[in-house]
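Need WD40 repeat domain-containing protein's 3D structure for a figure. Predict it.
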Amino acid sequence: MGRFYGSIHIRSTETEQITEIVKKLAAQEKLKFLISPCINGWISVYSSKSGQNPTVAPAIAQQFSGHLLNLILYDDDFFYYEYYRSHQLIDAYSSEPEYFGTISKEEKSRLTGKPEVFADLLAELSNNQTSIEDIAEVLTVLSLEKREELFQKSLEVLQQLEVGATSAEISELPDEEVFAAERQFSGFAQLLNISNASTCYEYLEDEEDKVIERREEFIHIPDPSIELAHKQREKARRDEALAKLNRAGILLTTISSPTPSGQFPYIPISIPDQTGGFFISWRGLGNQPLEIKHYTEPWNNEPTNLDLPLEQNAYVMQISPSGKFLAVGHASGSWQATLYNLEQKQLIKTIPHVRATSGIQFTPNEEIIVSRSEDEIILTSIKNLQQIAVIKIGLGSKIAIHPNGRHLLANERESKLAIIDLNTQKVVKVLSTAALDMTAWMASIQTGEGVTSFSNNEMIFKMDFSPDGKWLLCAMDKGVRIFEWNEVFSSKNKLPLPIVAAPSEIVTFDDPPSRMATTYDIAFDRQRNTLLSCGLEGKVKSVDLATGESKVLLELPGKPAVIQLNLSRDLATFCTHSQPNMFKRGRNQEPFIVQIWNYLALV
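Structure prediction for WD40 repeat domain-containing protein:
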């Protein structure tokens, strides 16, 4: 996700006049604003929703007759400006005029920018040597071929980062060329003596303001005490809802995150134990010892510590079917999987990997541990602790073992599913997920009902099997999908139609303005033949495999994104990992919360 900058710069020294204009606009548009003092002859206005609302600049221009510039950087992908004078739009520019689709030649020509219209403005700037030619140069875009070359290079870097590569391991890219739109944006602002352009309302409110001039003098519209009171009321309502669930015996316990030592929050890891409890820990950056705590009923008792020599760079954990072994996948520079004997409380095997170990599983007979990292899967014997095989596969992070112990599933680039024969250690076939219709997506965007971004196929976030092996269970961005395994195994190129499907709910976020839908995790209730799921919408849902009926079991107060869901082995409770305001940036990012819920009280 790239940067979103958006700000309006007004050539004036009359801060009070601009403040009155913005106050009226804030009431009309239900927006929030920050207004800077006059710096270099410019007063800057930052509106909420990352300054991307197209109605704000023309509305201010109708009330102000001088020079006004609306500067936008969209997702690091394109630079856009509007220039107003005498209440009129004088010029507009886009570095990617067809970013959202094909436009007419006339419209494309209108967005090429006319540097000569800035002659009068340049004459007003004191101690400024900028020429029309300088502006023309900064508006020049790279050729299509060059941009495609840089795009491919940046994709390679992104893939390396996704699997945990360090900066020293990543090939260098020409930053100014890869982020050409940001270079144009900042260069254009500098040519016109505009300060504090490379930011937006949300970044400033999240205290990402170290390089912002005179930040302490900015004015907030409306009065920030009103918003603070609103947030306090929202928190009070959320706290009361949680207290009510606790009194009703539905919320059994809440486990708060440790206080982070740096900017990045601790992230929870949890797995069910063999009876009805959970092992829960919090991972951070670095190689400090990792503390795993065992939570069991009664839930208000202090948990016990699992005394194991673990490091804090643990990424995933898995308990063996008998509960005798614990397997851990590591990240953050420690490219390995580790195997522990829980009865003896000791490390018995370290399995080196090429990158972060993102998936780890035991075969049902507990003879093999399967660990995955980037494009490799390693099979290791638990009996003699020797490597059995290394299987090369497409980039991905998820694995699931069929209850027959013969077949392993692994996702490839989120939209493909590889079936691997563990006896032969060969990939049997690779199946694509359902293809998505771009025309239908475009229509949904125009009606305001679709998600912001488009993918060619459904994306896989989690795979699992029913205990009898009959059903393949999947969490995807578009929702829950349940497939008949025999149909999957007999398919040639793509997954068959699901026998049951339940959609994800679309959630709207303001920073950056976007609409998303994702189901992150699933858990199967073998007794009731239902599949539980969780996702961005802040709910735990269930779908009945026999009837296809889907319903909401629990809506978490405040509707935080629910990232992980673990059902206890006795089917009495479930554990959730959630994060309020998941896409909030900077120091105000809220910590993860782990909660244990009374499942029996909800079904």
